[in-house]
Amino acid sequence: MSEHPTIALDAMGGDHAPAMVVEGAELARQRFPGVHFLLFGAEDRLRPLLAKLPDLAAVTTVRHTDEVVTADAKPAQALRTGHNTSMRLAIDAVHDGEADGVVSAGNTGALMAIAKFVLRTLPGIDRPAIATFFPTLRGESVMLDLGANVECDSNNLIQFAVMGEVFARTVLGLTQPTIGLLNVGAEELKGHDALRDAAMVLRNTKLPIKFRGFVEGDDIAKGTVDVIVTDGFTGNVALKTLEGTAQLIAVFLHETFRSSPMAKLGYLLARPALAKLRNRMDPRRYNGATFVGLNGIAVKSHGGTDPVGFANAIGVAVDMIKNGFNDKIKAEFGRLGAEQQFDSLAAAL
Amino acid sequence: MSEHPTIALDAMGGDHAPAMVVEGAELARQRFPGVHFLLFGAEDRLRPLLAKLPDLAAVTTVRHTDEVVTADAKPAQALRTGHNTSMRLAIDAVHDGEADGVVSAGNTGALMAIAKFVLRTLPGIDRPAIATFFPTLRGESVMLDLGANVECDSNNLIQFAVMGEVFARTVLGLTQPTIGLLNVGAEELKGHDALRDAAMVLRNTKLPIKFRGFVEGDDIAKGTVDVIVTDGFTGNVALKTLEGTAQLIAVFLHETFRSSPMAKLGYLLARPALAKLRNRMDPRRYNGATFVGLNGIAVKSHGGTDPVGFANAIGVAVDMIKNGFNDKIKAEFGRLGAEQQFDSLAAAL
To answer: Which residue, of B57, B72, B74, B320, has the greatest Cβ tally within 10 A?
Structure first.
């Protein structure tokens, strides 16, 4: 809830760390005055970078460690043996109350495993999920889970729906976000049992959420709903399919504009407009997958991102902290828990 | 295997039937000389359409029926009560040996249910799948299952892999198609048990197939492999996500080219090149989802397609018939069956 949050940064995670992390922090500092940084990593590499950015250095505390979680480390191994890695220490800082949130561009599996172990889940939440947002025909939508849970039961999906709704309000600033469950058809009888059971509960809940029923794969880019709820397997495949298709068309367009002198000239004339489109779909704008459901804010940046993308991932953490994401989650789950107690009481009578 | 196949057409299926079906058949007739058609539907509507197309009429036999499967009919109901519908009679014609394959733009669920019931699965195949192909960075790829089976075990996935490989050879004309299992990561330990078990069998099979292991969502559009194997839930979501994303970008581009006078001029200059790109990605080129694994060729056309799209769906059926799709499937499954027998013998010793 802090207006001047402290963000713990894993300075050594990501393909271009630590320079990318420090430069990203500088961009975030300019955008969010009052934010402080705790920077975990090799001091001898971080000091020269900070020396060039005195305004950043003034709001940053460096915590030295030589150890890192490598990109190919197994999550279980990183959890067991990586107690002094930059990633682990940055997460510990959130647990210990020294930081309000953590951002890392390192190994996703390790980050998830360590964050889950150190921060634990919020009351009422069985499993955390990975959420992100992306551009659609109608604006921006959130999707979760993107890979934390390969298999999900109906309770997991219901919890993801509630967390996704809070995410859409907190990070996207929507007032009445709509929710859909990803399925293979809009009819009530389609899909797995877990989906049908979750839909039944969400249709009948007294929580003030706008559940729109089932949506299909093509509804993702259409923006038919603001929050798309799915299991981690399907969500991961769907998001990567979306990204891959966008890249395919970008390559096809590139070839098209080089295919003749007229096309090249046409491209030159349309270039300013096309640059705006490129900016609208810039993956760096949508960098920052969030682990939701943990007792602490943890955001994963793309490993290959640049300072602009990393600053956006920090921005997601700052939005969540300033808008009280976890307090809102707790309030919703308090209501959901009371409702479920009431239901089981009613069922028992 | 016939060089002069007979195709049974459900003349009443699809949003623009029967005119769209008859005009599509005419385009297919021009493209595939020697093909005959059995046209099932309302004679009073079909005769006037055929009267305008004497060359088509010369190779077409009309079989009158007044009954149709409606777009909103439940599959079980269509199967139970629709014995004289144009869809059912067209499928019966394949079963009875009067036609070599059937094409319908009608109700997908009903078509699947009726085709499965009437034609039965080929020996060695537990469940049929829906397959289609689409444009990628490297050419064209096949994906299956696209929705026939919401849940799949490892045997289903192995069978889909073998059928997809034959499809890529038969319809796309590839000589050594590569196969990948869709997963959330390329590492061996990722994903469901069914995926890991299927991967293990496909890695060790003596069948002459090129199995490349796991692929991810972004590999679909990249064309990393020629055949993408997945369960019907994931495949349906992935294909629709791909289509939805392509449509989103088309809308964004349309807006971009109208956003300024310069952009408009640029569009006019690049228009011939962009038209080629549009043609390359034209959904009508990729019309025709095939039910593979049945004892007969059955192709589903998009319900909203036009004659060009419907002719392409007929083309898929013709390719499969002329190239002996089902004979090749039977040969592969004969080998697979022998291998499995050998394996269980070895395990028993």
So the answer is: B320
Average pLDDT of B251-259?
A: 91
Range A54-91 burial, b when 16+ CB lie within 10 A, else e: eebbeebebbebebbbeeebebeebbeebeebbbbbbb
Distance between alpha carbon A307 and the CA centroid of its chain, in Å?
A: 17
Structure tokens at B115: 């085709």
How much is the ipTM here? 0.90
Residue B288: pLDDT band by 50, 70, 90 thresholds?
confident
Helix or strand holding residue B117 (H, E): helix B108-119
Kindly give, in sequence order, each residue whose CB lies less than 8 Å from that of residue B222, ignoring residues fewer than 6 positions away.
Answer: A244, A247, A248, B136, B137, B138
B156, containing H or E segment:
helix B154-170
Strand partners, A181: A214, A229
Facing residues of A318 across strands? none
* Cα Rg of chain A, angstroms: 21
CA of A198 vs chain B CAs: smallest distance (Å): 17
Q: Is B244's CB within 8 Å of A238's CB? A: no
Q: Is the pLDDT of residue A137 over 70?
A: yes
Identify the burial level of A349 via C-beta atoms within 10 angstroms of its C-beta, where 0-12 means exposed, 13-18 middle and 19 or more buried: exposed
For chain A, the distance separating the N- and C-terminal CA atoms, rounded to the nearest angstrom, is 41
Q: For the residues B227-244, what does the mean pLDDT come to?
A: 95
Bridging pattern class, strands B101-104 and A297-300: unpaired
* Chain A residue with Cα closest to B219: A244
Q: Is A84's pLDDT higher than 90?
A: yes
- Determine whether B153 is exposed, middle or buried from the number of CB atoms within 10 Å of its CB (0-12, 13-18, 19+): middle
Instruction: Please state the rounded mean pLDDT for residues A220-239.
Output: 96
- Alpha helices (runs of H) in chain A, residue ranges in sequence order: 19-31, 43-51, 54-58, 75-81, 86-95, 108-119, 154-170, 193-204, 217-222, 232-257, 261-280, 307-322, 325-348
Verify whether the Cβ–Cβ distance B236 to A246 is below 8 Å.
Answer: no
Rounded to 5 degrees, φ, ψ at A231 are -75, 165
- Rounded Cα distance between B250 and A249, Å, is 9
What pTM was computed for the model? 0.91
Give me the pLDDT at residue A349, please.
Answer: 54
Q: In chain B, where do the E strands start and end?
A: 6-10, 36-41, 60-64, 101-104, 129-136, 139-144, 178-182, 210-215, 227-229, 289-292, 297-300
What's the rounded mean pLDDT across residues A298-310?
95
Q: Among residues A330, A250, A343, which one has the least CA distance to residue A294? A: A330
Q: In what order do the strands lie in the sheet with B227-229?
A: B60-64, B36-41, B6-10, B101-104, B297-300, B289-292, B129-136, B139-144, B227-229, B178-182, B210-215
B218, B253, B277: residue with CB nearest A241: B218
Both tokens of A105, joined, read 């561009």
Q: Is the pLDDT of residue B341 over 70?
A: no
Secondary structure element (H or E) that encloses residue A300, with its range: strand A297-300
DSSP single-letter state for residue B96: T
Can you read off the two tokens belonging to residue B63?
């079989």
A221 and B247 in contact by Cβ < 8 A? yes
CA–CA distances in Å: residue B73 to residues A92, B93, B109, B199: 58, 22, 9, 38
Question: Does the distance separating the beta carbons of B260 and A265 come in below 8 Å?
Answer: no
Interface probe, candidates B241, B251, B265, B302, chain A, greatest A C-beta count within 10 A: B241
